[in-house]
Amino acid sequence: MSKVTKRKHVMKEALWDDYELPKQNQSIVKVLKSKGNNLHEVATPKGEEFLVSMPTKFRKNIWVKRGDYILVEPILEGDKVKAEIVKIMNKDSIKYYKENNVWPKEFDDCKKEDITKEDDLFVNSNRAPMIVYESDNDSSENSSDSDS
C-alpha cells in the first residue's frame, strides 16, 4: 500500500466518516496539552487528568492540538498512560453527539468559557506596545480663546 493510500484510509478512519456512538468502555475527553512522544494530557468531564497515547497508525498523519475533543479507549496495562486515542472529533461529530444526548454537559460550559478567554490569549511580544499620548492642543486652544 502506498503512503498516499495509507494516509487516505487513516484520515478517513480518524476523522469520523462514520458517525457511531461511543461504546461502553470509550469516553470523550478534552486535550489539555501535548507532552511529546505522541502523548497528550487530557481531562475527563469529571476533571480527572491523565495521559493518552496516539496509536502508531495515526502518527505523522493526524495532529491533535490543545482544546480538541477526542474519543479514547482505556489501556489496562498502563500506569501513567491510561488510554489510547480512537477518534478525533470535529464540529459535525460533536453536533451528532449532542443530538443523541451523549455529549457531556461539563464540556458545553468549558466551550463557552474558552470563547470568552480567546481574546486575551495572544500577546505579540516581538513588538513594543503602542503608547498613545494625548496632545496638549486642546488646552492651548482654550487658553488662546480666552486671550481674544
UniProtKB/TrEMBL annotation:
Organism: Diatraea saccharalis
Superkingdom, natural source: Eukaryota
The S1-like domain, residue ranges: 17-90
GO MF annotation terms: RNA binding; translation initiation factor activity
Pfam families: eIF-1a
Protein keywords: Initiation factor, Protein biosynthesis, RNA-binding
Ribosomal protein is among the record's keywords: no
Tagged with keyword Protein biosynthesis: yes
Protein name stated in the entry: Probable RNA-binding protein EIF1AD
GO-annotated cellular components: nucleus
Family named by the database record: Belongs to the EIF1AD family.
SUPFAM superfamilies to which the protein is assigned, alphabetical: Nucleic acid-binding proteins
InterPro entries for this protein: EIF1AD, NA-bd_OB-fold, RNA-binding_domain_S1_IF1, TIF_eIF-1A
